[in-house]
Specification:
The chain has about 425 residues and is mainly β. It contains 2 helices and 26 strands. The two termini are about 40 Å apart.
Amino acid sequence: MTRPRCRTRSLALVTFLTLGLTVALVPATTPVPATSAAGTPFTLAVGPAGERWNADLSVVDRDDVNVRRTAAGLRMREARAAGRSPRSAVAEGMLLVAPRTLTRPATRVRAEVTARVPAGATVEAQVRGWRTNGWSEWRAATAGAVFDQPVSRVQTRVVLTARDGGATATVRGVHLTADAAAAVSAATPGRTYRVYATRIGLVGELTANGRTVQPRDHFAALPSRRSLSPLNSGDYTVRVCTTTGSRCEYAPVWDVGPWNTRDDYWNPSAVRENWKTLPQGRPEAQAAYQSGYNGGRDQFGRTVLNPAGVDLADGTFSDGLKLTTNAWVDVAYLWTGDGPRGVVGDGPLNIRSGANTSSAIRGLAARFANVPIQCYVNGQSVAGPYRTTTRWNRLANGQYVSHAYISAVYGGAVPVC
C-alpha cells in the first residue's frame, strides 16, 4: 500500500522478563537446577572450560553512562528516564569495561552475571570482538555470543534498565568465558539499515500480494515489489528490531509501500531500480522528507509527510515490537544474507533469550517467516505442530526458537552450537 501516514513522534515501550531476587544468569550447555523469585523451578547452565576472567566493575569513568559503584555492587545512578523527547518508558545505565586481549583467538564468549534484579529492572552483559577488519557488533553474551571470525580482543559492557522512577538492579559480578564455537560459518542476517517505521492498519483491505489484512496481523511492507513474497510465503522476510535491540520480529514482506513502489533502497546503486544518487540504505521518502530530495515528493508527486522506509502490520507493530507510535527501527533484509534458514510453520512464535520456555521473550517470528539459523542446542522438550523435540535453533541475533514449530530448513546443514 502506498497511502501516506501521518507524522507522529516515536516511542518504543520495552518489555522484559525479570527476577525479583539475586540470580546468576548463566550461558546454556550443562543444566543446573535453579528457582525463580516466585519459587518456580527452571534451568540454568554452565559451559565447558575456556579462557575465563572477571569483568572489572570497579572503574566508573567518562565513557560510562548513569551508573555508580557502591559497596553492594554496580547500580544505576538515577532511575529516571531523562534527556529524551518524548521521555522513554525506561531508565538506562551502561558500564563499558576496558578490552581484554585473549591468550588465543576465540569465536564464542559467554557471560555469567551475578546480580540482584528487582521486578521491572533488567541486566544484560554484552560483548564485542576485535577481528582483522575491526570490531564486531555488540551481542548479548548471557546465552553465548558467536562471532563469524576469530577475535583477539573482547570488550564487555553491562546494560541496566529500570522502570522510570523504579528500583534498579545491583550487579556483583560478571564472569566471562571465551572459547571456540563448533562452527563459525553461521547464518547471516544480510544487510541491515535503520529506517523509520509506520503502522499499516487498513484492516479488511488487500495487500499487494492478495492477503486481506487481519486485526493484529503480522507482516511488513517495503517500497519495492522486488521483495514482495507470494501469498502465504516468507520468501522475502525482514527482521525488524527496536533500536535498543530489546524486541524484534521476523515478518514476511506481503505489501508494497510506504510512499514509493520502486525504491529498493537496500540495494547498491548499480542494482537499485530508482533514486540511484542516494546512498545505499537511505529510502527516498527519508531523503525527501529530511532534505527536500526530489522536491520533497515521492515517485507519484505527493508531498512526503514522514521519512518512512518500512510499514508494519498492527500485530508486528504492537505485539512484536511493543511500539505505541511510529519509530526508527533496525531492519535486516534477510534474503541478502546467507546460511541455513528455517520456515516458521506456526506463529506468531515467541523468540526467547534461552533454550526453554521460561527464558525471556524477546519478540516474535510470524508464520511463514524464514529465519536465519546459526546453530542448534538441546534444551527443554517442546511438543509442537511438527514434532516433539529438545532442539532449539539459535537465530543470527543470538536468540532461540523451538524446532517443534519449524516446518522446513533450507540453505545448508545446521551445525551444533
